[in-house]
Amino acid sequence: MQGGHGMKVSAKAGAAAAGLAAVAAAAVFAGPALLGGGAGEKGGAAEQRLTGGRPEGGAASPSAPPGARPFTLVATGDTIPYPSIIAQAASDAAGSGAGHDFRRILAGVKPVVEAADLAICHHEIPYGRPGGPYTGYPAFKAPHQLADALRDAGYDSCSTASNHTLDDGWDGLVRTLDHLDRAGIKHVGSARTPEEAKAPAVLSAGGATVAQLDYTYGTNGIPLPAGKPWAVNLIDKDRIIADARAARAAGAHVVVLSIHWGSEWQTAPDKQQQELAQALTASRGPDGLPDIDLILGTHNHVPQPYEKVNGTWVVYGMGDQIASFYEPEKLRGNMSSIPRFTFAPAAAHPGRWEVVKAEYLTSFSDRGAPFRVVCTSCTADGGGAGAAKRSEYAAADRQISEAVLSRGAGGQGLVRAVK
């Protein structure tokens, strides 16, 4: 891996032991509390379900460790390297022997990502074989050097369940997870073994153990690999709640749900999103506290609203973080929001963390040339760009903000951040 974490390294320098503990915790999460399974059928696709070994109704929150403190969590939307973006990465790598270099593409949002205590991406597509061919829609295959750039930008974990997870079949799924492992990025949503499928991604920050879950509505009609019904996590309300409770019972102080859902190109959340958000945020454990602490949505291509539902923040859709749409009617697909939530120990509920600050930034895939991802809310002057670019960035920032705030999140405490 080239490059480093910058601010994030210093922020985490004292957390090496916690990182090792998180690795150990992953083994705990994959243990009896999450074992069981089997395959069911829904909508023509096999689904994994958790069975057995789970306390009835979940479990009370684990106690907080000494020195518990606030931490920040940043998330970004769908990473989709279209052929033009892959060509830019090849150009950026010219003369280096690396083949492709996505670091410059992500440099504009790196300061936001690496400054967070925890950063989560949505890894939309699989990696192709080294050397290619690399392809775009409808069956994506990207260069594996993307994993190195994501790590360089400061990402700790990525959700991997999407309608494109199986674009290159079982081999592509395995290849993707292998390269994320190589880069040191945790992942959840797709799996190489039944045990891996039953375990959340386990992260550590502020003394809290954070469990990330991930599910998708489907795989574009591509059947799950033969004999591997657990390869991709599919949305099922009861399963999501059961998994959240199992993670809590196994030691998670915070449960974050990544979910690939909704209707493409639609700013307003659709009926499925609203009903599922209501049900998931209403779910409570025996301690009367939420089973899920935060919901992060992907898939829609365009920024969608944020909203507190039953007291829990729901980001219906962040939009695509890396995309390249040229059709006038699809230019919104180059815009996304970046949620940033500050969690702090809950004084009234020992062992739980709660959101004490909710922020968003805005991001734009500038098609260039050169293609670059820009934090459009971070610099008032457009990052030194010319007048035309400044105008374009400002318009994107306004449009993203309108979508994010369209269901009253501003009145619920969400604020726009500039750095």
Tell me the count of domains: 1
Helix-strand category: alpha/beta
What is the CATH third-level topology name?
A: Purple Acid Phosphatase, chain A, domain 2
What is the gyration radius calculated from CA atoms?
20 Å
**How much strand content do the residues show?**
15-25%
Low-confidence stretches: 1-58
Name the overall outline. globular
Describe this structure in words.
By secondary structure, the chain is an alpha/beta fold. The chain has a single domain (7-355), classed as Metallo-dependent phosphatases (Purple Acid Phosphatase, chain A, domain 2, 4-Layer Sandwich), CATH 3.60.21. The chain has eleven helices and 17 strands. The strands form three sheets. Strands 3, 4, 5, 6, 13, 14, 15, 16 and 17 form a nine-stranded mixed sheet that branches. Strand 8 (208-216), helix 9 and strand 9 form a beta-alpha-beta unit. The model is unreliable at 1-58 (pLDDT under 50).
